Structure formats: structure tokens, C-alpha cells
Amino acid sequence: MNPGTPENVANNAYQASAGGHFDPGNGAPPLLQVQGLAHRYALPRTRLWGPRPQLAALEDVHLRLHAGRSLGIVGASGSGKSTLARLVMALEPPSSGRVLWAGQDPRRMGAAELRRARRHIQMVFQDPFGALDPRQRIARIVAEPLAAQGGASRAEQRRRAAEVLEQVGLAASALDQYPHEFSGGQRQRIAIARALITRPRVIVADEPVSALDVSVQAQVLNLMQQLARDFGVTYLLISHDLAVVHHLCDEVAVLHQGRIVEQGPPARLFRSPAHSYTRALVAALPLAPGAVQTHLT
Ligand SMILES: Nc1ncnc2c1ncn2[C@@H]1O[C@H](COP(=O)(O)OP(=O)(O)O)[C@@H](O)[C@H]1O
Ligand SMILES: [Mg+2]
Questions:
Q1: Strand 202-206 and strand 71-74: pairing?
Q2: Which ligand is nearest to the CA of 80?
């Protein structure tokens, strides 16, 4: 995460991507790699004896996420963003290609190994209302990924839940409350606290602020930025809104009809979008690119 001018951000991100194998230290593999990923959904048959038609949701997607260099994915509704998120999280197997977490393919891991590996990659979903079980208290909801790892006592889970709630700006009194007692913005903070509790290196956030009012969006994005600085979290941030990823990411990939059509530092994409779809995205922004940062801060 780079404080400073968009130009600095752009330069650093460029240096990071130019080598292809940027690594801030020990020669470890990227936190996340996506290699030749494709995904097709089988649709209902249109004719009784015909083959099932397929919808190509993703085609030949390649991505690399390096520690400390958050990557944004922008694309219109239906471009394949949530499919990509589910495949990256290994919640669904891809039709072809593969996902690597720190060089390892989660699909080749045994159950115990996969459970341990999930500690390092957590997800925040779009809908702060649907994503939190309304019947559970916040303590239970937030501690769930830690409980799934095993090994932490109830007392330890509660202590860690209070700690991460505080880190997202909520009081420990929230522990014994239920989701309906919170606003959309607070619920998204709770969802972020839940993602943080295992101290992940990567958080995949699928439209984390799209359901929120603009003023609340800025607060949540600022919080995410703060967490990246304080805890070294790296984001794969998915949004239909170029302004949102511009705020948080060092690099942006533009997804159009299941393909990455352009990738680069956000400042460069704003200044000189190469692909017609990126140009349309930039033109659709309500504010001039220079104003975006101010608008969201
Ligand atoms: N379970 C599914 N079955 C069939 N088609 C799906 C399914 N999930 C998504 N799709 C289709 O795949 C495409 C990409 O969807 P999605 O990944 O949700 O895009 P986005 O998140 O960018 O809106 C869309 O055309 C969508 O209708
Ligand atoms: Mg989606």
C-alpha cells in the first residue's frame, strides 16, 4: 500500500509488475497466482436431446498477487468477477487452469492441509445482510474462521473476536449482539473483522462496499487501507467501480466478458486507457480522475 501521490503509486506498481517476479524479500512465490483459468457453467437444455449449452464465465485469466501490492479487478455486472472470487477461494473447481496459494494448488491439498491453508486467505462478501447469520451472536460469527481452524478455546476465540472488532472500530459490547442491531456499514466492518481473525495474508473482497451509501463506502475503504498498512493484508479487491479500486489498489485488471482486457497501475488506466471498455469505464466515472481520491477520502 502506497501513501503519496498517484504518480508514486503508479511508479511503484509499475516497478512491481515490470519484473514479473517482484518479491519484497525472500524469493517466496506470489501470495496468489491464477494461471489460464477458465470457467463454464452448464445451462439448462434448450432442446430435449441437444447437448447442454454452456456459458463461458471466465476465459484464460492470468493474475499474480504479490505481498503488499493489492490488486483490483474491475468489470461490469456479469463479467465474471464473483466466479473468479469463488475459484480463487477454492469454493468451486475451475473448468480449466489453476489457482495457486503461495505456490500451492489448494485442489491438490488434503482436507487438513486445505483447512490450515485457508487461514491465510479469507473473503469478504458483497452483501452485509446476507453474509452474517442472523441467528448467531457477533462473537460467534466473527470467531467462526478461527473455530474452523481448530485449536482455539472458546475463551481465546472470544478474546480474539473482541480484538479484531476493536481493530475495525467496533466496541467489545458488539460481541453479544445480533447482526440486525447494526447498520450496513457496521455489518461490513463485522465481516471484515471475521476475515481478519485468522490474520490472513490475503483478503478477497467481492464488491465490499457496493451495498453501502457513498459516505459509508469511504469509511470502509479507509478502514481497509488502514488494515493493509497495520497488518500487511494484501487485497484482491473486486468492484464494478473503478473509483473504488483506484482508492485501494496498486494495480488494476479490467475484466470484460470473462477476459482480462487490460492491466496496469490505476493512474495509468485513468490517464490513458488502452481498451475501449476501459475507456468507457473511465468516462462513466462521476468525477474527473483527479477528484476521485478526494471524493473517497
Ligand atoms: N451458478 C451459475 N450458473 C449459471 N450461470 C452462472 C452462475 N453463476 C454465474 N453465472 C453467469 O456467469 C456470468 C458471470 O457471473 P458472475 O461471476 O456472477 O459475474 P459478476 O460477479 O461480474 O457480476 C454471468 O453471465 C452469470 O449469469
Ligand atoms: Mg458479482
A1: unpaired
A2: 1
